[in-house]
Amino acid sequence: MKHGRYWALAAASVVVVVFGSAQATGALWREEKVISGGTINSGTLDIKVGPAGAEVNNYVLAALGSTNLGPNGFSQASLSIRNAGNVPFNYRLQGTTLTGAVPLTLTATLVTSAAQCPTTGAPTGSTTVLYTGNASGAQAPTAPAARLLAAGVNEVWCFRLAAGADPPQIQTSTVAFSFRADQT
């Protein structure tokens, strides 16, 4: 008889726990909203980077690098950014990550074509400086601002990484650029 009582108490405890759990998870509110009709449009948002005609999602900008970068030296290369989708979007250089021992300064300039971003000298032609400062943590334009890019259109950025007057010797650094695109 003792075992029967324990089973009854155990079963009652389970029922109380189950009932208590079910009560705790119930919704305590309900909301409905009727909206007037409208149009829903869909599309493809696709940002591509790299050389014109060969853009990809992840691109190694090998031209933006140098061995034996001396005091006040720099490396400069262009990057094409294209809206490969069919809807316009807002985009920006979301951030940069600098790894290594060489502190670098980044200058990001908007140019009309890759030819206006020579490996030596300043960018030429019609230019707009988007960012100048520490290469680590750079954003251009600064959030929440962004650049509008229509479907099928590209922009060319000229990136310059510069060492200071006294860079550490026999050291390296790597910079990774991250872009963000949001549908307008």
Describe the protein:
With 184 residues, the protein is mainly β. It has 1 helix and 8 strands, in the order H-E-E-E-E-E-E-E-E. It has one helix spanning 2-24; strands spanning 47-49, 74-83, 89-100, 104-111, 128-134, 147-149, 154-163, 173-183. The protein has a 5-stranded antiparallel beta sheet, with no helix packed on it. A 3-stranded antiparallel beta sheet has the order 6-3-8, with no helix packed on it. The radius of gyration is 28 Å and the shape is elongated. Mean pLDDT is 82; it is low at 14-26.
Quick tags:
mainly beta, 5-stranded antiparallel beta sheet, 1 helix
Q: What is shown here, in short?
A:
By secondary structure, this protein is mainly beta.
Q: How far apart are the termini?
A: 73 Å
**Backbone shape:** elongated
Radius of gyration: 28 Å
Q: Structural class of the secondary elements? A: mainly beta
Strand order across the biggest sheet? 1-2-7-4-5
**What is the average of the pLDDT values?**
82
Q: Main β-sheet, in a few words? A: 5 strands, antiparallel
The topology string of helices and strands comes to: HEEEEEEEE
The percent range for helix content is 10-25%
Beta-strand content:
25-35%
The DSSP helix count reads 1
Regions with pLDDT < 50 over 5+ consecutive residues? 14-26
Number of strands: 8
